[in-house]
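Write out this protein's structure.
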Amino acid sequence: MASANKFLTLNTRLYDYVVAHGHNADPLLRELAEETSKLGALSTMQIAPEQGTFMGLLARVIGARSAIEVGTFTGYSSICVARALPPEGRMLCLDMSDEWTSIARRYWERAGLAGKITLKLGPAAETLGAMPAAETFDFAFIDADKENYRLYYEEILKRLRRDGLILIDNVLWNGQVVDENDQTSSTRAIRELNDFIARDERVDAVLLPVADGLTLARKK
């Protein structure tokens, strides 16, 4: 059982303090966030700055040399992860939108990461299904259509090396996961995946209240 004394509800002032007291002020990422904000409501799909920093730290800590991302959008998360890979590291990004990823490609070039990152456009389920079984990854991030989260999780888990990490975004879904009145397909998909991972003995997992909820799963 969770202890009422062991968590805080963040307000804007406290959240700003959190962001200010981490290494979250990269100029290129700030510029990318500003450009993404011009997309309007869609810009909320971009990860939070402290989440990006956290993801990069995790990739470095496990010594990741290869990474895969499902759902790239304008490239913020891919930059955070690709920067953490060694010079010979590789990152595969899967997305449906040429429009959004065209922004990502520009910033990959500016960050000096274009040589590390391969972008494949098209349905991620098809791309993952067509991959050779021998292709493996050390680190993965899932942040795409929620209805296919379970499929992405399974396809990546079987290609993840032992002690590799899968990170899954939006697992609290703005709090809707605990609202039983919300039976939309996206909410049900996230809720069902959360329940499944909590019982999945192939991994060690934790769900953290970072940004909109972030699950970390380590393959045993």
